[in-house]
Design a protein that fits this description.
The protein is α+β, with helices and mostly antiparallel strands and 149 residues long. The chain has helices at residues 5-34, 44-76, 122-127, and strands spanning 90-93, 96-101, 106-109, 112-118, 135-138, 141-148. It contains 3 helices and 6 strands; from the N terminus they run ααββββαββ.
């Protein structure tokens, strides 16, 4: 398949930007509920709810950084043509297409379903440097790299 990798990058950036916005909105919602109105007496359950909201906001803060990091990485990856499995390649394994960039859920682009995988993913470690037609071992199974673009 002849991929328009600029379109793939833009699709992935759009997905990650939307996820960042959603996480940011959720984060701000939790931050606002974590603030107590000090001008009124504070009841125990209000204090407990504020603490829970604060803890959740902290967890979401990590997510915000993850999405921002993914966006930054997508903007810098070379998505040019590839002949081996490296960052920026579109790889077909077991009939499925993967983009070597950042981890994502499945998404559609060019009428095909793809999924982003990170260079930190164990599957990438197994297929890194492979060419189309080569077979690699992953979790005790043989996997053939069907195509690399």
């Amino acid at each position: 398949m002849n991929w328009n990798k600029d379109h793939i990058r833009e699709t992935m950036l759009s997905l990650e930007t939307a996820a960042l916005k959603s996480a940011r909105d959720t984060y701000l919602g939790y931050v606002l509920t974590a603030r107590l109105d000090r001008s009124e007496p504070i009841e125990n359950d209000e204090h407990a709810q504020a603490e829970i909201a604060s803890d959740l906001a902290e967890g979401l803060d990590d997510k915000l950084h993850d999405y921002a990091d993914k966006i930054e990485k997508l903007e810098t990856i070379d998505f040019g043509p590839k002949s081996t499995v490296v960052e920026g390649a579109v790889v077909k394994l077991s009939g499925r297409y993967f983009v070597i960039a950042v981890s994502t859920s499945q998404f559609n682009c060019h009428g095909q379903e793809l999924m982003g995988i990170s260079t930190m993913a164990p599957i990438f470690q197994a297929i890194e440097g492979a060419r189309a037609g080569e077979t690699v071992q992953f979790n005790g199974r043989k996997i053939t790299v069907e195509s690399v673009e």
